[in-house]
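Notes from hallway chat w/ T.B., transcribed later so I don't forget. T.B. wanted the structure written out for a chain they're using in a teaching module, and asked if we could keep both sequence and C-alpha cells in one place. Agreed to drop them here.
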Amino acid sequence: MATTNLSNYDKTTIPNSKHLRFGIVVSEWNPNITENLFNGAKDTLLEHGVIENNIIRMDVPGSFELIYGCKKMLETQNVDAVIAIGTVIQGETKHFDFVCDGVTQGIKDLNIKYDAPTIFCVLTDNTMQQSIDRSGGKHGNKGVECAVAAIKMAHI
C-alpha cells in the first residue's frame, strides 16, 4: 500500500513532451476507479505539454484484456509510450491471483518485445476503499504517477 502521496513529484524535473504521442488503454471494469486513474494520467500529460490529439484512448472490458489492447496500441498508433490502466480487487477466489499475475507478466512481455514502454497502472488492492484511496483519494492518484513514468520512459 502506498505510504506517500502518489501525486507528489518535482514538476521541474519533467521534460516538455509536446512532440510525443501517448496511448492509454483503460479497463471498463470498476469504472469509478479507472476513470479517475485515466483523468489523473491525461491531466498530467497535458500539464507537461502533450497535445490533446496526441493522447489516444482505447477501452477494453477488463484488466486481463489490457495486454491485448496495449499490444494493438503499440502496433497501430505510433505511440512513444502506453499506459495500461485497470484495477483488480481481491475477492473470495483465486481469480485475483491469476489476473494480477497474467497482467503483470503480459505487460512485462510487452516491454521486452516493443521499443516503446508500457507502464503498469493497474491497482491490485484488497478492498474497494484501497482502490478509491489510490485513484484520487487520500493516497493521491496512481494515474498521475504513471503518466510521469510514461513521460520519463518515453524520453529515454
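Follow-up for T.B.: The beta strands are 22-27, 55-60, 81-89, 118-125, 135-137, 140-141. Might be a good example for the class.
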